[in-house]
Amino acid sequence: xxxxxRLGVVCLARKTFDCQAAEKLYEKIxxxxxxxxxxxxxxxxxxxxEVEDARNAARYLLGKQIDGLVVISGTxxxxxxxxxxxxVLRVPILLWALPELPYNGGKIRLNSVCGxxxxxxxxxKSGVKNYSTCIGPSIDMNWVDAVRIDAAFKEAHIGIxxxxxxxxxxxGVQDLGVYRNTGMLIDHYELGEVWNYPAEEAEVSRRxxxxxxxxxxxxxTEQQVRRMAxxxxxxxxxxxxxNITALAVRCWPEFADGFGIAPCAAMSLLQxxxxxxxxxxxxxxxxxxxAHRAVGGxxxxxxxxSQMDFEEDYALLWHCGVAPCNLTDGRCERSLSSYHAGxxxxxxxxVLKDGDVSVLRIDSAGSEYxxxxxxxxxIPMEKELRGTYMKVRFTIPVxxxxxxxxxxxxxxxxxxxxxxxxxxxxxxxxxxxxEVIE
Length: 438
Hints:
Layout: E1 5-12, H1 19-33, E2 39-43, H2 51-63, E3 68-73, H3 80-89, E4 93-97, H4 112-125, E5 131-135, H5 141-155, E6 157-161, H6 175-182, E7 185-189, H7 191-195, H8 201-214, H9 222-241, E8 246-249, H10 254-259, H11 264-271, E9 276-278, H12 283-294, E10 301-309, E11 314-319, E12 335-337, H13 340-343, E13 347-351, E14 356-365, E15 368-379, E16 388-394, H14 398-407, E17 413-418, H15 423-432, E18 435-437
Parallel strand pairs: 1-2, 1-3, 3-4, 4-5, 6-7, 6-8, 8-9, 13-16, 15-18
Antiparallel strand pairs: 10-11, 10-17, 11-16, 12-13, 14-15, 14-17, 15-16
Helix pairs in contact: 2-3, 5-12, 5-15, 8-9, 9-11
C-alpha cells in the first residue's frame, strides 16, 4: 500500500479573466482529487485572488500539516500569491496549469500556462527549487508519489543493529547528514538486544511449522530450523516494540558465532510479511527500500550486482538468501541451506519470479546525494546457486549500467521491486536537488 499523504489544494485567479469558468473547473478537479488513493485533500474553497486570500489559505493549511501544496492556475493571477503561501508552508509545490478554453469574443479566458510560468520564475529566482509543474486536465500522479516518498521519510524510524558489516566502509553514513537530507533519525542497538529478546514458545512453534511448510529443510538441522524460528520471533517483536520502520543488521561476521546461525533466512521469512530488514548494516539501502514501498513497490529487498554477462547482456542480481520468500518463481524448490558462515547459515535458496523490475539506490558521497535508477526484465533461469537471485536484462546495455555504477562510486547494494517505479524518483530527486544517475 502506498504511503498516505495530505495535500493542500488552492486555485488562483484574477478578476480580469474568466473566473466563473475557472471556478467550475475547480469544482470538477476537486471531485477527481478526492478519488486519489491514500490521500487526504485539504481544499481551499473558492478562488484565491487577493494577497490576503493567499495569506489566509497558508495559515489554514499550515494547521493541517500538509505534505505538499497543489497550486492550480485557474487563470493568470498575481505573482504574490504563491510566494505568500510558500514562505509559510515550506513544502513541495505542484504548479498546475489548465488547458486553455475556447476563445470567447477574441479574448483569452484563462491564460493559465502564463500563470505557472510566472510562479515558476518567481520561485526559481528566489532560490526555491522544490516545485514541479504539470499542464493538463489531471494532476500529475508521479508528483503525488514523489510527495509520498518525502512523507514516508519524515515518518520513518531506522534502526541499526550492531554496525555496518566489516570492511564495508562505503555503507557508512553521517547520521545528521541523513537527518538533514531526509528527516530520518537513526537509532543504534546492540546485536545482543535482539539475540536476548524474549521469544514465546507458542510463537516459536508456529514459526517452525511455517518454515517446514514453506521450505525444503533437508540440508539443515532441526536445531537450525528452531534457531531460525526463534530469530524470526525476536526480530518481529523487537521491531514492533521499538516502532522501527527498517532495521539494518550487521549480519556478519559476529552474528553466526553469537547466535548460532546467520540471519538470512529469518530475514527472508519476515520480509515476505512486509518487514524491512536490511543486510550488512546498510542504512542507505534501508532508505531506498522505504522509498520503494512509499510509492507502492511491494516487498523491496537488497541485492548485489554479482555477475555481468556482456555478451548476453544480463546481470545476475544475487544475495546470500534474504529475498522475500514469497517472491519465488514457483518452479524451483524453495529450500534452506547452511553453506554460509562456515556451515552456520541459515540461508534461503530460490530463483525469483519473472516480471518487470525497478532498481533504486539512494546513495551519498560526502554531503552529496545521488539516486541510481534502472529498469529491466527478469530472464527465467534454472536454480543453480545457493542464495536468492534473478537474471535481469536492463533497458540499457548492462555494461553501460555497470560503468555508471562504478564510475559514480555507487555502493554495491540496491533495492529492487517488481513494476515500473521510475518517474516519481526523478521528480523527488529534482525536488531535493539530488543528482539522478540512470
